Amino acid sequence: MTEITGKFREALGEENVLLDEPMGKHTTFRIGGNADIFVTPQGIEGVCRAVRLAEESGLPYYFIGNGSNLLVRDKGFRGIIIQIYKGLSYINAEDNIIRAGAGALLSSVAKKALDCSLTGMECLSGIPGTVGGAVCMNAGAYGGEIKDIFVSAKVLVNGNVETIDNASSQFGYRTSSIMREGMTVLEAVFELEKGNYEDIKAKMAELAQQRNSKQPVELPSAGSTFKRPEGYFAGKLIDDSGLRGYSVGQAQVSPKHCGFVVNNGGATAGEVIELIDHVRKTVYDKFGVMLEPEVRIIGE
Ligand SMILES: Cc1cc2nc3c(=O)[nH]c(=O)nc-3n(C[C@H](O)[C@H](O)[C@H](O)COP(=O)(O)OP(=O)(O)OC[C@H]3O[C@@H](n4cnc5c(N)ncnc54)[C@H](O)[C@@H]3O)c2cc1C
Question: Which residues, judged by CB distance below 6 Å to any ligand atom, belong to the binding site of ligand 1?
Fold first, then answer.
């Protein structure tokens, strides 16, 4: 382990390699055991170097962005977490095209779109993820999805940097070939339309207000815990199963929005997982619908 750590430090810089890093510091759930090695590569070249070293080490490795759709188990992650975030967060706009590093926050990209009077990102502006996480998950809200504005992405695949376009990304509901084939997003290009600054600003404010009033944004969570089952809404099924406010320890089905599991302070991943299992079983017994988690669960 010391040898691997040394190699990472040499390649990425001392300050970009942490050992035994608590993952609760890097997930919006504020939950998670320690990662053995946690690296924050800078720039596209940094990410490529980190992946090369991770491959060479033979240890398991996993990418994260802002950790807003992630639950890390209590015993942590044995291996390397590669966080693509602040070190790859440039955002450039030219005419109606925005090119952003995978680590840029979607909210910052939306702000750039607003500043340039570009419309098309309003519905995505409140999603607290990075471009990389959002592209890979085909994040969406209020009737819009990443795939609607996505032109192409620079991805790392089998050690090579390639460009993947919209059709080849095979976007589906919270999925893409980028995710299924384990590609790493380095940069994405979005196409927007010229719009009116005041209209775009008003739409973003309206949707933010809607989000704040309906979702438990004041508590740590990973957003919607479950995918939307075809023909139903997860939150309604959970509510109709009598689980509004149901708790396991400090993990709770949000009384404000049943589709969210929240951390009321000091919840463990074990409690969240027990709660998820209980919700799935109860909803299945009552309605015959098996809810599938949207949140990604990693670690041991
Ligand atoms: C309060 C709240 C509200 C939310 N609302 C919404 C919503 O309205 N709509 C919605 O879709 N989601 C929502 N989410 C969930 C989450 O914000 C999105 O799924 C987001 O796209 C995840 O981005 P991230 O950077 O945080 O990814 P992470 O959680 O860090 O990772 C998620 C997945 O993406 C992968 N990944 C991350 N970066 C990369 C990369 N560069 N290359 C390849 N793979 C990568 C990870 O390996 C992982 O599998 C919400 C979350 C919260 C906490």
Answer: 28, 62-70, 84, 102, 127-130, 132-134, 136-137, 139-141, 184-185, 215, 217, 221-223, 296
